[in-house]
Amino acid sequence: MDRKERYELLFNNINQYNSGEEGITRIAYSNEEQTCTHAFMRLCMAEDLDIRMDACGNVIARRKGKVESLPPVVMGSHLDTVYQGGKYDGVVGITAALEVIRRLNEDGIETDHPIEIISFACEESARFGVSTVGSKAMVGQFDKNRYRDLMDKDGITMEKAFALCALDFNSVEQASRADERFKVFMEIHIEQGPVLINNEKKIGIVTGIAAPVRLHVKVKGKASHSGTTPMNMRKDALLGASEISLALEKAAKSEEEFGTVATIGVLNVYNGAMNVVPGDVEFKIDIRSTSLNSRKRVLDQLNETIEIVKKNRQLEIESIEISSEEPVLLSTEINDVLKNICDEKNIPNQTMQSGAGHDAMNMAKLCPVGLIFIPSVDGLSHHPNEYTPLDDILVGIDILEAAILHYAIIH
């Protein structure tokens, strides 16, 4: 079996763990995600890696170095998905990292530094509305009080989800490695956008990661009969939410030069019926940018609109901040190394920013970070039709392997 066939088998093996009929559904801390995680652990054991799972559910797989006291060179990504997601988001990073280890073992290469693979828990916000949970815990920024009672769509809290995986929520601070030394952290990921495909590039070298602020907004009006309540006497929670949504879109469009975006991806009308004026509506907002000032302007306009809608429509509106991340600039030194590797291998490449968040942005608090993008056909991601050609993944693995060797071997 050649390396291409071996990697394809690994990739398909990981993606068999799926609870959905369309796309891939492997939600954080679910049975499918946990089964997949333990299968990955067994694959790492087969490569003679030392395995452990921390208090947040992160998996750390370590390959010994000649000098164990040296800081590890780390690769990582995640195995969880959104609902009805694709096969590539996260999985490429984990399987690519394991393939790098397999190549080193196959070639009998010893490195001076230890090498680690980290499979981060709960990278996606799909279940609880907060993302990169595992890497937050690893850098010592897991907010237990804020996250404890966050609920999924089935009413299961994050604390309960931990317990169902035999994890102790109250011990999650034990996952912190903030006092440890790391040489570098590297992540390979599909772009999740159309830039590389459109520019006919094989590798994106990420210079910065945009960060979101996320809000949970509750709008309370008064449910009433649609036929007997005059239009000027209604307290329609859905129309209030709609007015806020359109104002948010306008605010984000005014910041296009900064690449700022805003999205309402969840909206629930409670006890809704065709003949009932909506009384209770909740929705969730995601605003993100690489510019904190731009993001703040959108947030300020949102808050102003909420006050106007409350007054004009006589509604009760509560806006709760779920999370707020800061944009991250990545290591210019690592990016220079990646650029040189690509050029030496004659791989078309470009620098770019990431509009999506990644565990890499948290790991930047511990060590220099490099983030490698590979193309996403049609820019699709978080979608069943998400696709990256196998040959493009293998190019990315070649670059990742070269970068890992650059940092793991003392020259």
Automatic annotation (TrEMBL):
Keywords: Hydrolase, Metal-binding, Zinc. GO terms for molecular function: hydrolase activity, acting on carbon-nitrogen (but not peptide) bonds, in linear amidines; metal ion binding. Residues 214-309 form the Peptidase M20 dimerisation domain. Its cofactor is Zn(2+). Binds 2 Zn(2+) ions per subunit. Zn(2+) 1 binds at residues 78, 89, 189. Belongs to the peptidase M20 family. This is N-carbamoyl-L-amino-acid hydrolase.
